[in-house]
Design brief:
Elements (H helix, E strand, L loop, with lengths): L24 H13 L12 H14 L1 H14 L7 H13 L3 E4 L8 E7 L5 E7 L32 H19 L3 E8 L8 H6 L8 E8 L7 E2 L4 E10 L15 H16 L7 E8 L10 E10 L2 H22 L2 E11 L3 E2 L1 H14 L6 H13 L31 H5 L4 E7 L19 H23 L3 H13 L21 H11 L12 H5 L25
Parallel strand pairs: 3-4, 3-5, 5-12
Antiparallel strand pairs: 1-2, 2-4, 6-11, 7-9, 7-10, 8-9
Helix pairs in contact: 2-5, 2-12, 3-5, 3-12, 5-12, 7-8, 9-12, 9-13
């Protein structure tokens, strides 16, 4: 059992298992009568319409391929960074409001965040659909070009592929909504964005501020190069993102440096201390840092300086242990330099992830039903071209769907990335469905991972993901068992000996100031390159890119085209 020393640790409010969750009082009375009159042990029956509606949903989503393409391409062209996703917000909420969804802006204290809800009948169950929307700094790249070739050099872009997930969710939800209206199916659809996922900056605040309080199941999606879904403890570390700010005293760096107290010295000592600490950390740890602020100019002793750390380990207690160790080192660095610790700020956080077995099983069944897209020769050529250019094995695009994966063996786990969907997963039944909208071989968080993301690869992969999402929604609304089974698993297995303790406190605020300066620098320069679907069929067409564009000269040639001799 995970234990906690963090004030505010609470058991999940749905820890006490109910046959039907969070019912309104009038609904509760009706259900109580049903329970009394229903023979013991009799399960709800699958709606006889389910299979026919799933077949119909597949056809309907396929007919919305153009909508998928436009959403994917539009968000790609925005290229917005975390906490600054305002063009994305305006565009997506406009679509959803036009289709009858109730929009709430600025949720959980984040101006670029939002939710969109639509209910039918009783409104139960409530199924949430989420996907991240933020980009990566310095990852601007022309789509369909299998080598480094930015639209705007050094500008932000979608070097993770977060421009595709909302197309998956929105197209699935709109088609399921149409079926629910026609067939008088009870339920609520809730669509939400993962804001500032790259900073792990939003989802814990969504949870803390009650955004998901009435949600029965959360279906999350994430871009990948293939379909996949997992259950139980999955790969990925828990994380705390924290900034340490020191203050000292200025002085003339040449005239009287002895009169100064360098805040930069303090953060450099802290960074060096952490490098020595690494030797004594477990292999699954992942820790890294950048200097956010290091002074104004070399001839002035820096009065203020800030260092930003990510501390990652497999679970809450071990991350807290790392964070506490860094705080002690910060005190020592301040003492050695005569400076003061101005601020220690939790900027973002993420729990490790545990996904619902019943929901994952249903999703895997639907993945196998949909299958991978039919890749064209051009799609495969783009993938091979990039892989060759990056020095990777040429393996093209996937042709087989992997099987459902269960829990990882934490004893053999070597560590990895983080996602704040973990916090959501410890508060309600949750899965992440990965869909095949990108290419294998990229390093991640890189311009190369944006090459496919406004091409037929992303369009086809996102469309396939929307089909799976639509089928899973229908299962949750109509199969009469998966939602309840998901809560049984959540209460009786996942949370049986677990307490969710947020890394953030009740007083912490989202770091909405992050990336403001970068986007202020780039937004107006990027605006002329926003996708215009009224004039161009695709973003590739708008940019005048021949698909695919593959390097024809040897990699050994430099940017000026001069031959560079091979060195052996």
């Amino acid at each position: 059992m995970l234990t906690s020393h963090h004030q505010g640790s609470v058991k999940h409010p749905r820890k006490e298992k109910l046959t039907v969750h969070h019912l309104r009082f009038s609904q509760y009375l009706a259900v109580l009568v049903l329970i009394i009159l229903t023979p013991t042990g009799l399960k709800a029956q699958t709606d006889t319409r389910l299979e026919g509606l799933k077949d119909e949903a597949l056809r309907m989503v396929e007919e919305d391929a153009k909508m998928v393409q436009e959403i994917v391409d539009m968000l790609f062209s925005f290229g917005e960074l975390g906490f600054q996703e305002f063009e994305t917000q305006r565009y997506l909420t406009g679509i959803l409001e036009d289709h009858g969804f109730e929009i709430e802006l600025g949720v959980a204290g984040m101006p670029s965040a939002w939710t969109a809800r639509w209910s039918n009948g009783s409104g139960s169950p409530v199924i949430a659909l989420g996907s991240d929307v933020d980009g990566i700094p310095q990852s601007n790249q022309k789509p369909g070009v299998a080598y480094r070739d930015p639209i705007l050099s050094m500008a932000p872009g979608h070097g993770e592929g977060h421009n595709s997930g909302q197309a998956v969710n929105i197209v699935a939800a709109l088609n399921v909504k149409e079926l629910m209206e026609r067939e008088d199916i009870d339920g609520t659809l809730m669509i939400w964005p993962g804001i500032a996922e790259e900073q792990l900056g939003s989802k814990a605040f969504f949870v803390r501020d009650g955004v998901f309080d009435d949600v029965d199941v959360n279906l999350f999606t994430h871009v990948s190069s293939n379909f996949s879904v997992t259950w139980g403890h999955t790969s990925g570390n828990a994380l705390v993102s924290a900034q340490f700010r020191f203050t000292g005293e200025t002085a003339h760096s040449a005239g009287s440096p002895w009169r100064g107290k360098s805040a930069l010295d303090a953060i450099m000592l802290l960074a060096q201390a952490w490098e020595y600490k690494r030797e004594h950390l477990r292999p699954p740890q992942r820790s890294h840092y950048i200097i956010v602020e290091g002074g104004d100019q070399p001839n002035v002793v820096p009065q203020t300086a800030t260092i930003w750390f990510y501390f990652r380990e497999v679970d809450y207690p071990r991350v807290v242990e790392m964070y506490d160790a860094a705080k002690l080192m910060a005190r020592g660095a301040a003492m050695m330099t005569g400076t003061e610790i101005d601020t220690i700020m939790t900027v973002g956080s993420a729990w490790n992830r545990h996904f619902s077995k019943p929901v994952a099983e249903v999703t895997q069944m639907n993945i196998e039903r949909v299958g991978l897209p039919e890749w064209s020769g051009e799609d495969v050529a783009l993938a091979n071209g990039l892989q060759r250019d990056l020095g990777q094995e040429e393996r093209g695009l996937p042709t087989q769907v992997p099987p459902l994966r269960g829990p990882i063996n934490l004893a053999n786990y070597s560590g990895g990335g983080s996602d704040d969907i973990g916090d959501v997963s410890w508060n309600m039944p949750t899965i992440t469905m990965r869909y095949p909208a990108n290419m294998p071989g990229g390093p991640g968080h890189n311009w190369a991972n944006g090459i496919a993301m406004a091409t037929p690869i992303a369009h086809k992969g996102s469309l396939a993901g929307a089909k799976v999402q639509a089928l899973t929604l229908l299962d949750l609304f109509l199969d009469g068992q998966t939602v309840e089974a998901a809560w049984d698993y959540f209460n009786d297995v996942q949370m049986a000996d677990m307490t969710y303790t947020p890394f953030i406190t009740p007083d912490d605020k989202p770091a909405i100031w992050l990336n403001e300066g970068i986007m202020a620098q780039w937004r107006e320069r990027m605006r002329p390159f926003y996708y215009d679907p009224s004039r161009y069929d695709t973003y590739l067409e708008q940019l005048g890119i021949e698909y695919p564009t593959i390097r024809t000269r040897p990699i050994s040639e430099d940017a000026l085209g001069r031959s560079v001799p091979n060195r052996h």
